[in-house]
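Input sequence (451 aa), recorded before submission:
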Amino acid sequence: MQKPSIPEGTRDFGPEQSRRRAFIFDTLRDAFVRFGYEPLETPAMENLSTLTGKYGEEGDKLLFKILNNGDFLKDVDSALLASKDSARLVPYLAKRGLRYDLTVPFARYVVMNRHALAFPFKRYQIQPVWRADRPQRGRYREFYQCDADVIGSDSLHYEAELIQLYDDAFTHLGIPVVIKVNHRQVLYGIAEAAGAADRFVDMTVAIDKLDKVGLEGVRDELAQRGFSPQAIGHIEQILSIRDRTELRHALSNSPAGQHGLNELDTVWAYLEGLPLRNEVRHDVTLARGLTYYTGCIFEVVAHVEGVRMGSIGGGGRYADLTGVFGLPGLSGVGISFGADRIYDVLEQMNAFPEALSESVRVLFMALDADSHRYAFRLVSRLRAAGISAELYPEPGKLKKQFEYAARRQVSWAAIVGEAERENQTVVLKDQRTGEQHTVAAEALLEWPALR
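Predicted structure, C-alpha cell format:
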C-alpha cells in the first residue's frame, strides 16, 4: 500500500490553520478596498511565452513547466532528444507553465483588456504562485501572494500610498515591520561609479543575495561574474553609506543616480508628517532581483525580537512591463505581501486572535430523542441569526459529547433534556470557566456571550 504524501515545498492547512489564513487574507483585502484597489483573478496556468524572460536569468530557472497534452514526445527530433539538452527541448515539451508571480499575469491582463479599463487602473489579487525553488524554512514551492498594483500613471504619490498601505496592513495584522525603500536608478548609479554599468544586472542579482549569503558571499559572486577587485571595493564602499546626502555626493557623476535620489526625496516629501506606525527606511543595499523594476523598490521585514524571517513583502515601480505584450509606455507600481511568511511570523509571535481557535460558538447536546429534535430547532434559529451553532449527532450520555466539544475547542455547550424541553430553556455552560446558566430559549439570541 502506497503511503500518502504531498509534494516537497507544499503544505496542507487544517481547519484552524485555514481560519488563521482567512484572517490574514481578510485583513489585507480590507486594506486594499479602503485604499481603492479592485479585485482581479487570473489563471494558475499561463503560456510560457508570457512568463519566460520577465524574471531574469535566476527567475526563469524557477518556472514550473507543464508537459503538453497527449504524446508530448511524438514530434521531438530523435537527435535532439538524445542530446538531453533541456533548454532546447522545453519548447517542444511544454507550452504552458504555472505562474511565478501575480505581476506579469496582471500586465498581460491589462494589455488584453486595455479598452475596457479606466487608467490609472488599481487592482488587488490574492492567489497562489509556484516556484521551483529549494524548500526551506519560510520558502515554499507553492505559496500565496497578495498584490496591490496601480498601472497607467507616473505619479510618485502612488509610491507613498503603497508605503502607507504596507504600514496600515501590518499594523492591523499586529506585526511591527521595517519598510525598506531604494531606487533602481540609484543602484545603476553605483554600477556607473564602479565602472561597471554594462554589468548592472549582474551586480543587482549579486547584491540581492546579501541577506542570504552575507557581504563575503556577495564579494565572491561579483568576482565570479567578472567584476574587478577595484570595482567590488567601490561597490562595497557605496553600499556602506547610510546618509542620502553623502550618497548623493558619491553618485555626483551619475545622472541616473541623481534622478533616483530625487524621486526618493519626492516620496519622502509625500510621507512627511503622516502618522506612520512603522519605520520607513532608505536602504541602499536593497536590490530586488527581478529585472522588470525600473524605479522605487520596496521590501518589508518583521521587526520582532526573536523572530528571524526573510522579507514578508516587496515590490517596486516598472516603467514598461506591458511593452513586451504590445502596449508600450504604460508605467506601473505595485507591492506584494507574502501571506505564508506572514502566517509563520504571527505563529512565532503567538499573535493570532484567540477567537480563531474556535471552530463553532455553541454546541448543543441532547439527552434524549425528543430533546434532540427540540435542540435542532434552536440550532436553526441561532444560525439564521448569524451565530455559528452545531448539534451533536446522537442524543445520550454527556461525557462523550463534552469530549467532542473539547476537541473542537467549542466555547459554549448548550445542554437540553426533558426539563429544559418542557420549560423551553437551555443550560449554557462556559467551557473555559465551567460556569452554567439556565437561559430561556427565546432569550438565546440576546445572550451576549453568543454574539
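Checked by second reader. Residues 358-450 form a domain with the Rossmann fold fold (CATH 3.40.50.800).
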